[in-house]
Each structure stands twice: as C-alpha cells, then as structure tokens.
Amino acid sequence: MSRFDPTRRWLEIALQQERLRRTAVDARAMLKALRGVLEPLTLGDRPRCSRSAKSWLCRKGDRRRGTELTFSAQTQEEPDDHPALKLQNLPSLEDGARLTVRVLLINKRLEKFNIGLAGELRGGAGPWFVRVDLDPPLLADDVDLDGPEHELFERLRTLPRDEEKRRERKGGAGLGSHAWPHCHVGRTPSDKLQQTRVPVPFIAPPDALAWVLATADSTLEPCPWLDPP
C-alpha cells in the first residue's frame, strides 16, 4: 500500500477544479438556470419573495470587463448596499433575510461567484449567515493544463509576485484552508467562525444557489430522499 500523501491530494483537487472551470459557459443559459432555481420562491399562497424576483436577476457588464449575473439595483435598500433579494415565509429565518448572488463570467469561463444568505433566526436565536464562494482561477488562461504534472503542481502552490493577487490568494495558509470552491457558515459575514472555509465539490452557481436556499427551507431541498416503492 502506497504512503498517504495529503499534499498531493489537495493539489489534485485544485487541478481538477482548474480544468472544470475552463468549460465554456453561456451567460444566457446560466441566467436562465439561476432564475429557474428562484422560481419556486415566487409561487404559492405564501411566496418566499416578490413574484417579480426572477426579472430582478439580470446581466451586467461587457466583453472587456466580463459579464456579471446579479440582482438589479432595484433590490438595494441603500445606494451603497450590495443588491440583495429580501426573503419571507422561511421556516427558520425571520422575514427580511437577504439573498445575494454575484456570478462573474470572463471569456465565457466561470471566473468567480459568491452566493449567500444572511438573516435572523426565528425565536430570537440571533443572526445566521451562509455563503458559497468560488475564487478567481489559480492558473492563467495560457497555462497548458495537460502539461507535466509536477510543473502544474508547483504553479498551483506558488504565490504570485503581484501584491494584490498575493493578498487575494493568501486568504488561507494553503490549498487546504482556502479550497476552491468553499462555503462559509457563521452568525454574520464578519464572524470569526465563518472565516473557516469548508471545501465543497466543484458545483455550478445554480447548484450553489439551490443548496444555500435549502439550508433555510428544507422544502427547497434539490435532491430529496425517496420513500421505497
């Protein structure tokens, strides 16, 4: 039996994610999928948000800066706020919980996304927060991902010289503590607890959105258990 090598496993995971994110993404199809996840929130006698919510999720940007999929300024309570959809009628959260969605596509590739939900737990139990993040790629677009494995592994582990990118990369001590993608769970976005990044499989933004919503309402579970026949 070969010796267990935890370093190699994290490098393999990172390289797999770099390859998956290079798959071409159609912005219109992605927007339609995100709106499809939101649709159940708008239905029924007790909708969980405005019935117009799907139309508030829109495309912004251009080819040079990239295409961002996010809620329109119509959802901002204050000019400096991040656009966020206010939710209601959730079993575990008080009315007024805020759902944020930000997906950035550059050259038809998934650059990064942040999908989160913040609110107050019912019964006065305090604040609650969850977010799934995919940070920018570790490797430049011109890096051949089919090149020698040892060279790719070295590139993945090496911090960039550019100071801004270096700070961005050093959100954790390494690939294990700052996995791509990851989720935060805590009481508020600034809570020390939420600074722990929990690694998750490589999932597309619509899947991340479905999971975030299901954490606050089990009836929105995207893949529920089935009773035996």
* Radius of gyration, taken over Cα atoms and rounded to an integer in Å: 19 Å
Assign the structural class, choosing from mainly alpha, mainly beta, alpha/beta, alpha+beta, or little secondary structure: alpha+beta
Number of discrete helical segments: 6
Total domain modules: 1
In percent terms, what proportion of residues is strand? 15-25%
- What's the multimeric state? single chain
Number of strands: 8
Largest sheet: 8 strands, antiparallel
Low-confidence stretches are: none
**Secondary-structure element series:** HHHEEEEEEHHEEH
Distance between the termini: 42 Å
Helix content: 10-25%
Mean pLDDT: 88
The global form is: globular
Description:
With 229 residues, the chain is of the alpha+beta class. Helices cover 25% and strands 24% of the residues. It contains six helices and eight strands; from the N terminus they run αααββββββααββα. Strands 1, 2, 3, 4, 5, 6, 7 and 8 form an eight-stranded antiparallel β-sheet that branches. The model has no long low-confidence stretch (mean pLDDT 88).
